[in-house]
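Thread: quick sanity check before group meeting

JM: Hey all, I'm pulling together slides for Thursday and realized we never actually wrote out the predicted structure for the chain we discussed last week. Dropping the sequence here so it's in one place. If anyone has concerns about the input, flag it before I start.
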Amino acid sequence: MKSHQPGSSAGETPTCQRGWHRKKQPEQVRAALIQCAAELAARQGLTGVTVQAVSDAAGVTKGGFFHHFPHKQALLDAVFDAFMAEREQEIDALIAADPHPGGRFTRAYITTAFEEMSQRGENIHIPLSLSMMASPALCQRWNEWLAGRLQQHQLTDSHPLHEVARLATDGAWLSGSLEVHSAVRDAQILKNHLLALTRESEPS
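JM (edit): ok, ran it. Output follows.
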């Protein structure tokens, strides 16, 4: 999932095709299918993630695809799980390194979002995230994930200023990702302001 962002050429071969289709390597085959689906989604959107396209990119048969995933949605769920596993690992590492409990989940949330923005064009996270927004099912899973994390951190991240900082982060991420005219001009300054906002008041 950390692959560089694929190019825009429709005929470009996804970087995931690296021979993981060898026999007796089921975990590698599954990982290749997930990676290829992620790269196709980042480059072409979810409509580009078809059973045939993913199978071809991973170098497996359609039968091999269905051995691991009964349908396309199951594959998209696996892509989401892999994406969120990386995000969770990054957030948890930042939380563990933060000596100040109040607002530390929000600070980790801000930091990972702005780090992703700074790497725009270098990996597939932003285009993949944008493509997943087209799926109501995946959007619902994101909402459930965030609700779960906020419940987990309710003692440290429940102050209204924390919510303001998270929502501002979401807006900055979306604006920067879409490269609209109102995109953040100095992301580092905004990031620092939002991080400071999380420290202005202890959670109620």
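AS: nice. Confidence is low (pLDDT under 50) at residues 4-11. The longest helix spans residues 72-97.
JM: adding both to the slides.
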